[in-house]
Design goal:
With 413 residues, the chain is an alpha+beta fold. The longest helix is centred in the first third of the chain and has 29 residues. It contains 11 helices and 15 strands.
Length: 413
């Protein structure tokens, strides 16, 4: 019977990839506490398990010498063999739960050592179970992850890593990013039921999920030719990604969008229809802000580097597009650039621009050899059209510039 127990332990260690000596030592410590209680041994017991036969030996610890006057404890003990005749039965009863705990903790420790180095990596898993508070995802055989989506009003200390509106079905394959791996040796659990929950925590709302998805879909991003400089997300609704290229001959936005939008469409499909805007990053803050507010057209950007504020002036018909629904476009642009953005239309900003020194105004970038029409209306707003080649004005105002307008209002009748 004893040899059968050792064979069973050996098979268990091979299956769970656990050190057999470690398991036996832990089992000896657990049995020592159990026999000390069962046999009523005041100073405890020491248990040894024969590595070959599996026989259990129990020794009572009998103190010798004098106790420490400060601590009241003994430092030396004699061991007296008190092995009961039914050690195998008692050992089996008390070892069952301990073996399960040892196996579970050893498996969690192996997962922690492997995946704690992979925080920030993307994983693909299969949905095993969905509860109102979290979803269990199977990464591989014996390794599971948790996607928490707790109600923040009821459990403010918990996470909510599921985009609004997403629901998962059984055996559905999803991608997520690893954001945390719980340490099994931690003595202070930070969330309720942590010991019974999978040690790996994943997210589908983290901005880095977009980075990893573009690495999977865009070879130029994976190779480092195109760099994702900044990401701003409102999970499940809309995101902005700013990219730049290390090769002047390569268009980073076109590389990320792909032929007919095929690459970005794959990312959008994985994010369940979340709108993704890919914009061009620039080291010039004014150009970066103008690009981040895409698809709105920007007339001018005024940067205050001391306060980190950017005043953006847009055409009157672009104001609502620049701000976005409930301020979404402006909010994402601010997160993307790290600047506070104040958007004004040209009508309201006419007085500000009139008094502002020309050198502090960053003009909208145009191609070399082109410039805007120089016509300025009575309200102080410059025409938004491009000038004709070889002329200072656009086609609309080119002839008006040479016409002398009478100051008599009746002459216009």
């Amino acid at each position: 019977m004893a040899s059968e127990m050792m064979e069973a332990l050996e098979l268990l260690c091979q299956e769970k990839h656990i050190d057999q000596l470690y398991l036996i030592e832990r089992l000896e410590q657990s049995l020592a506490k159990s026999y000390a209680d069962v046999l009523h041994l005041p100073f405890g017991a020491r248990v040894t398990i024969d590595r070959t036969t599996g026989r259990v030996y129990v020794y009572e610890l009998v103190p010798k010498g004098e106790e420490d006057p400060e601590t009241g404890e003994y430092s030396e003990f004699d061991e007296v063999d008190v092995t009961p005749p039914d050690t195998s039965r008692i050992a089996a009863q008390h070892a069952k739960a301990e073996i399960r705990a040892i196996v579970r903790n050893a498996a969690r420790q192996q997962i922690y050592e492997e995946f704690s180095q992979r925080i920030g990596d993307i994983i693909t898993g299969t949905v095993l179970q969905t509860t109102p508070d979290f979803t269990i995802i199977k990464i591989r055989e014996g390794v599971e992850a948790e996607l928490p989506h707790f109600d923040q009003r009821r459990y403010p200390e918990e996470r909510n890593e599921r985009p609004a509106g997403e629901r998962y079905g059984h055996n559905q394959r999803i991608k997520a990013i690893i954001i945390d791996v719980r340490d099994p040796n931690s003595t202070q659990p930070v969330v309720r039921g942590e010991r019974q929950r999978p040690p790996i925590v994943v997210s589908r709302t983290h901005p880095d999920l977009l980075r990893r998805l573009f690495e999977l879909e865009v070879p130029e991003v994976y190779d480092g030719i195109v760099e994702v400089r900044s990401v701003a997300r409102e999970p499940g609704i809309r995101s902005k990604v700013a990219v730049s290229s290390n090769d002047d001959r390569l268009d980073p936005v076109g590389a990320c969008v792909g032929p007919k939008g095929s690459r970005v469409r794959t990312v959008v499909s994985e994010l369940r229809g979340e709108r993704v805007d890919v914009v061009l990053w620039s080291d010039d803050p004014a150009k970066c802000v103008a690009s981040a507010l895409s698809p709105a057209r920007v007339s001018r950007v005024i940067i205050d580097p001391e306060t980190g504020y950017a005043t953006v002036i847009v055409p009157d018909d672009q104001l609502s597009l620049a701000i976005g629904k409930e301020g979404q476009n402006a909010r994402l642009a601010a997160r993307l650039t790290g600047l506070h953005i104040d958007i004004k239309n040209e009508s309201l900003a006419a007085g500000i621009l009139r008094d502002l020194p020309r050198a502090t105004v960053e003009e909208e970038t145009v191609e070399e050899g082109e410039h805007r029409c120089e016509y300025v209306g009575a309200n102080g707003i410059q025409c938004r059209n491009m000038a004709r080649p070889g002329s200072r004005f656009c086609g609309v105002h080119e002839q008006m510039a040479d016409v002398e307008v009478s100051s008599d209002p009746d002459s216009l009748i």
